[in-house]
Specification:
The chain is of the alpha+beta class. It contains two helices and nine strands; from the N terminus they run βββαββββαββ. Helices cover 17% and strands 44% of the residues.
């Protein structure tokens, strides 16, 4: 099974807020989460990923919510795009947490999708275009992707 990052947009309070269903897989593990965000988050993330890894930190973090129970967030969504080696080997670290306190309702997923810098750059372009809210689905396989 190939890596997968799939965003499905469900019209919400657009053009200001969007509801997204995210599915991710590294080929061995699979996870999904539904979340809400500002509509301008995706083009900003897309711009950052199109420039990846040409920053001082050689990584970019996209995070919504927190796992801190005192903050009372409904969920925590965490993506870290990072450079493994200067040759272009990269990864996307993923962590989802639905912030439920105990089993059987608590759900946590954490894994990494290995990829290349050029694939992350292409994902950035897709996210920027997807942020125009003219497509319902973004699919990316770790290297290439498309909008529909």
């Amino acid at each position: 099974m190939k890596p997968l990052l799939k965003l499905t947009r469900h019209p919400y309070e657009e053009p200001y807020h969007i509801e997204l269903h995210v599915e991710v897989s590294n080929g061995r593990q699979h996870a999904s989460i539904e979340y809400y965000t500002n509509a301008d988050d995706l083009p900003v993330l897309g711009d950052a990923l199109m420039q990846f890894p040409f920053t001082d930190s050689k990584e970019h973090i996209y995070e919504i919510g927190t796992e801190d129970p005192e903050a009372r967030f409904a969920y925590h969504l965490y993506f870290r795009f990072f450079l493994i080696r200067p040759t272009g080997d990269s990864g996307i670290e993923i962590r989802f947490h639905n912030n439920r306190e105990a089993a059987p309702d608590r759900e946590i997923a954490e894994f990494t999708i290995p990829c290349e810098v050029a694939g992350i750059n292409r994902l950035g372009k897709l996210l920027k275009d997807f942020g125009r809210l003219q497509h319902r689905v973004l699919e990316w396989d770790g290297n290439e992707g498309h909008l529909r």
